[in-house]
Design goal:
The protein has one helix at 121-124, and strands spanning 13-16, 22-25, 59-62, 66-68, 72-77, 82-88, 91-105, 111-114, 136-137, 142-157, 164-173, 177-182. The radius of gyration is 26 Å and the shape is elongated. The strands form three sheets. Strands 4, 6, 7, 8, 10, 11 and 12 form a seven-stranded mixed beta sheet that branches. A three-stranded antiparallel beta sheet has the order 3-5-9, with no helix packed on it. By secondary structure, the protein is mainly β.
Amino acid sequence: MCAHGDPAKPGITSIPCGNGQFLPLARNNTPATPCTVCSPDTIVRISDLQNFPAYAAPTGMEPNGWAIVGLATNFWATASTQISEGLLLGQPAQVMFTPTGYHWNYGDSNTTSTATGGASWDDLGLAEFSTTATSHTYATKDTYSVVLTVEYHADYSFGDQGWRPVEGTVTVPSTPITVIAANESTVLVAHDCNANPHGPGC
């Protein structure tokens, strides 16, 4: 016997062995059908993961919802590793999705790809409107739809046999972000607008 039973399944003894089989014994100690797909030689592809959806990463931007033409607008995503359980090739399994790439479409025909999801200016220790790896500067005023697509690498595991790679990658788009880009203008005023908010130019 290679291992003890699963505490979550009283009365059933599991025998995951190094020969690539995961053989459960029924309550009457009659062996069930061996798990033929649990072999290390089994090839699992992205198309086999219908029962294991990867979820869209939360996104953020600053300034919130708007941009100043000619100045950097910062975007970021908080993607993280996801692990879920379900049936894979008819057998109980776990699948783990790990983010590996971030593809930004800024809505004005400009795109970029980054290895990380970025962060806010405050978290990066930068001043507002600083350029970051995930920021973008709009050239004209308009309303834009920004779409992030996160690329995930997947691994799977039958029982306690360890993680094995899944062939292919998963791409998951996030909810689009609407950005209103406007021009910034300044004027000369005759008085301190804090002291006299109703003065000319205030």
